[in-house]
Amino acid sequence: MNIPLRASLIVCALVVCFFVMRRVRKSSLEVEDSVFWLLIAAALIVVAVFPQLAYWVSDLLGFDSPSNFIFLCGIIVLLVRTFAQDRKIAVLKRKLTALVQDEALREK
């Protein structure tokens, strides 16, 4: 991994941290969501500082190249994140339906 790529990963991670902290201060981001984004930023920094770690893990798991391993990890993280968001949305929909029904009964 060359130096410009490593530097850009670190800069991107710092930008993510800055925006997450800014949104947390403005109370427009939940703590649970901010932890997720901070972990992503930390993972970017680890890969940028220790690129041999990606090579070692990809060799250990039998991937042909580290980029395949990184892409698979990204896809898995996005799938888990999507599932968690879907779960939150389902809970909110149930609460909204119950609230609307309760309000309709009160009006009648």
UniProtKB/TrEMBL annotation:
InterPro entries named in the record: DUF2304
Keywords: Membrane, Transmembrane, Transmembrane helix
Transmembrane segments: 6-24, 36-55, 67-84
One Pfam family named in its UniProt record: DUF2304
Domain of life of the native organism: Bacteria
Name by which UniProt lists this protein: DUF2304 domain-containing protein
Origin species: Candidatus Olsenella pullistercoris
